[in-house]
Amino acid sequence: MVVLYWDVLLNQNWDYPQKIMAETGEIKGHYLNATAGTCEEMIKRAVFARELGVPIVMHDYLTGGFTANTTLAHYCRDNGLLLHIHRAMHAVIDRQKNHGMHFRVLAKALRMSGGDHIHSGIQ
Prior knowledge:
One of its GO terms (molecular function) is magnesium ion binding. By secondary structure, this protein is of the alpha/beta class. The chain has one domain. Helix content is 52%, strand content 11%. The protein has seven helices and four strands; from the N terminus they run ααβαβααβααβ. The protein has a four-stranded parallel beta sheet with strand order 1-2-3-4. Helix 3 runs parallel beside helix 5. It is globular.
């Protein structure tokens, strides 16, 4: 079985957005997903992203947790990175008719935990 590691995959694909920008003259971006099983690994990924010159780091705040989100938010703020929040798993919480909470509540909790902006999608 071949195991592909996060940093290897990113290194293999990082030139692609640069190539497309050069060809089209348009600005392209990549939200590097720093979500990981531990805060230590998440910060390693954010450090790696910063070293590559990535301006935006992404975090799945519901799967990663609010404490992890705040930890990453502090690192990003201290190091000039923008923290984009992805909403993976939100439908389990906010699309149930008989239980759960409204997405606006989740979005406000995200802001309190340090996210800069959120992928809200279409509902």
